[in-house]
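Recall from the previous chapter that SMILES is a line notation for molecules. Here it describes flavin-adenine dinucleotide.
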Amino acid sequence: MHIAVLAKVVPDYEVPSMDFELSNGRAHERFSRMMGLYDENAIETGIQLKDKTGSSLTLISYGLDSDVQFLRKGVAMGADKLVLVKGTSDDAAVIAQNIKQAVEHLGDVDLILAGQQSADMDRGVVPGILAQMLGAAFVPQVGYIESAADQWKVSQMTATGRRELEFNGLGVLSITSIPENVPRIPAVRAIFGAKKKPVVKLDGIDQGKMALAEISVEIPKIESVCEFIDAEDPNEAVKTLLSRLTEERYI
Amino acid sequence: MKTLIIENIDLKKIGELMTVSRLFCDTPDIIALGDGEIPGSFGRAWQSAATVSANLVVPITQLIQQEGYEVILMSVSTLGTGLAGPLSAALSAPVITEVTAIHPDMVVDRPVYGGKAIIKYKIESTPSLLTIRRKYFEPEALAGTTPSVPLETGDEKVTLVSEKIEQTEGIPLEDAAVIVSGGRGMGDPENFALLQEMADLLNGAVGASRGAVDEGWASPTRQIGQTGKIVAPDVYFAVGISGASQHLAGIANSKCVVGINKDEEANIFNRARFGIVSDYKKIVPLLTQAIREDR
Amino acid sequence: MARIPYWNISYGVIIDLLAIPVFLIFVYGLYLQWQLIKKGQLRVIPSITKVFQGIGTFRPGAFFMRGILNPKIYRKPASGVAHGCVFWGMALLFVGTNLVILNILFGLPVFTGAFNRWFMSFTLDLAGLLVLGGIVFFLLRRQFMPDRLKIPEARTGFVLVSSLLGVLIITGFVIEGARLCANTPEAGAFVGNFLAASVISQTSALQIHTMTWWVHGLLALFFVAYIPFSPLVHIILAPVNSGFADPSPGVKMGVMDFSAFDDEDAEELPALGADKLADFTRKRFLDFASCLWCGRCQEACPAHNTQKPLSPKGVIVTLAQKLAAGEMEDSVMETLSMEAIFNCTTCAACMEVCPVSINQPKTIMRFRQNLVMEQGQMPELMGKAITSLEQRSHPFFGTGSGAAEWRKDLEVPKFEAGKTEYLLWIGCSITYEQRAWTIGRAMVNILKSAHVSFGILEDSRCTGDPAKQMGNEFLFAEIAQQNIDDFSALGIQKIITMCPHCYNSFTRHYPKMGGQYEVIPHASFIRTLVDDKKLQLDRNAQTITYHDPCYLGRRNGVYDDPRNVIASVGNLVEMPRNKNESFCCGGGGGNYWAEETGTRINQARAGEALGTDADAIAVACPFCLLMLTDGVKKYTEEIKAFDIAEIVEKCLPDMAEG
Ligand SMILES: Cc1cc2nc3c(=O)[nH]c(=O)nc-3n(C[C@H](O)[C@H](O)[C@H](O)COP(=O)(O)OP(=O)(O)OC[C@H]3O[C@@H](n4cnc5c(N)ncnc54)[C@H](O)[C@@H]3O)c2cc1C
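With both inputs in hand, we obtain:
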């Protein structure tokens, strides 16, 4: 069996709001780059599945040459190889198209896992587009996966509970975080081992863009100064607070 | 514009989408999923008991093409997320997820970088697909019901074996939109009940600082901060919490922090958007009452 | 009348002859110990002495000072004095016995005149009494054991050797008494004379003398032969272990070289850290064999003191048992829990009090290294901190601070190659922990006030110390190498640190990787500024207590500089546990990123500090500051803990920002 996991290298997703800065409409390049957190959950899930089923596991990413150093962590966690499709598009359809190319390059992929959403664009839409392009079933928000007699049994973690689903054939699953897929920290030996694992680089294609024009990217103004509400009359104070909270759409 | 809503039968969700649809058309059509009557009045309505998105892609695609819908609205949910990508590919349609605002001329906002920035897109073709983030649009009060015709779903790609609705004890801190947290300033464990009452009214969860956990007033699973949970609610009420950096580490991505502390010098006010300098015992009960009246 | 050798004894020479095989057995016993210790790994660094290659460098000075004179043993006065009595008493008796032999062989005139009276009679009688007194104490203590001896387990075998020694001393006295009873009392031999006069009857004296003489002789031989097979072997192992001990204070983990892992043809790669007994070096084996399970380490241990699973004694005892049983290959982690291994704050209090120079933290850290580097296992929060350190070059995951926020609205010069003299190293905590920002700001103001040529780096950085403390030597090596390369490019030679962890990394580890700098902790730097009159400080009447950070004090011996600085601005009051006996704040060893079980260490220490009633608690470490700031909240709403730089800044005459 062959499992593919999609991963994307993104700018530090934990930069505190106060410190966040843009350049050219994207997160400033001074922020460190790293794999998205959900991607790491997906890799962890993939590795557990690989270990259980004796499969092979390939990491697929669309991005820059320089992303390889960060993707190596995923290899060190337990992937067997890495396929990087080179490109810089932020368009979900283009990204999916390029990943499809990698999947086809691999030829024998049985299951594709992806993080629930990338940690930069926060879209969660690429896996679904990819699934449709591949004619595969798409199941979002998956927590647990089991393989049973050429069937996949998966648990979908919904807002209200949990659904058990089954399907045959190729599937694309977007993975959510659960206590069991906290990403492992690779051992030193594995980190060195990862440097020796194969990296395949494919040239990307930049067509099939969605009909969307990006107009602007802006940082919402956050009031960093505290607005003190006079507590002389507590009754008045709570009313003011509530109305201010509602005005600013917090509740 | 010809607008279609795709949603599970759920008053709030359909209500919100109805509000959004008014920006595009007078009366939208709907594909309603699940059992029960369709609330609100729609132009046309289709219905299916099937709720697994993978099995709905083909029939919905066909319907959209047949009827020539221009805008398709879904909410950010298991269903919406499951449909948005596949429909976009099947229809070669632009898709924007997690929409938080809609401007004239098909310009929409959505957050990126964990909400630290907002990106604006202009949609340049039809049909287009939008998933709407919850709680950003006031749900319209839905009057009446709309009779529906069944949506033919054909072959199942994915089988739903079982579904378990989990009545979780309260909302997990990590997912809560409102958190009411108490610190050492609470003075005694009983007063945490005040916070619980307020949180319940706001559909939120109760958190605690390590100060309060240390005193044994709150369970360690409630602790927020560097060595506790990292949360990102819309509103975070910090009651009797001084705002030590290790505590703030857990709320760095909260949208709005409200500090209630008797000490005006407390560090929490450096992070707070709103502050009330007072004994919380005077404020919290009144605040709870005001919220109750507000409902 | 002078004493006659073998008086009243026939064939006494049998004992002398038996001494030869006994000596051989003794040597053989030691040889067996060596065989055991030899099973340990060779040290990577080749040692100078050939015989002990693989244990390390032998330092006769330490052997004598730490091993024989052993001032540490007296930190517990009662058992210290008991040890002193027995050890030095036996030493005197040993000298006495040898003099007798010299008398027999060469007729050395020891039994005459004042020497006989004052040494051979009086001193040796006194020595015997001291030994006996010590032994009575030891036997009683074995009956009524304090917790440190009992928990988790007491070493056995002491009662037998102690009793044996006691019987030897008593029989020795009886022989003397019987001899004097049969002859005449001897000046100076007060014990013998007493026994002769009031205990032993004239009629049976000769018979008693012969019998006891033989019993004493044979027992003595048995005793000597038995030493290497009993816990008493510590009289040899303890000084030897001290002789081989690392002479620098605190734990020194060394730096690891990972190049072999990159080498294509490298054969089997060594295990990182230790998972089983066989992974330890000979020096550690010697530690395990030397340990008497006395538990002083565990009494000093902040983790053990606050009901956490870790006991340094427990760790060493477990390994000592494995060593005795020859269980080289069993995983030890089954006995020791991962939690315990990560409880260690690396404060080095245990090794500081260890009377036999065992390096407990190093053993604990070796387990930690294995868990982290070989198995990727660590407590969740530490994992987050390590991941953050790897991804964003600082361990403060979830921080709300941006990299430059600490110096907002404060003008801070950048280090310029060839122009600036000192690099003011900021480090991670001052950058990313709001409470620590002011340390950096205060220090900048102090340096400006003293017109020091200094600058900071463009970006904020970490030395890698948190990774090292959590056992991730690999990450440490990567970060350190990067810093060293960048420092070279900037021509940095002198560094001022505000964090003792950074200081420790720069001085202990960076030199081994090619980074040689003059590094000065801020407390010492401020002291020099004060001494050189470059800083004018307004002294006031405030009382200040000082908490010694483990990485400044115990690990690097900086005790006086911060105290001098405090004395120049206020009145120093000491906590009960201070200087090398200081009690950790709880934040070391990566435990800043941990949720504790049991009592919080920082609360325990904060309580002690508040107990001095001082107006302020001074620290010289940002981590200690953060821990104690939190700890103090348990007791008061007042803010009491400050960094020394903050305290000094407040006493600058013109405290004008920027
Ligand atoms: C390594 C480390 C990790 C830590 N991790 C965390 C963590 O994950 N989460 C966390 O929360 N803390 C953490 N801390 C602890 C942190 O430093 C603080 O000590 C803790 O957050 C303080 O809790 P507190 O604000 O409830 O208490 P305090 O700091 O004692 O504050 C109590 C506040 O209540 C106010 N108050 C008192 N009475 C009233 C009243 N009647 N009405 C209104 N206000 C009142 C006071 O003015 C004061 O500001 C950590 C500390 C360390 C050293």
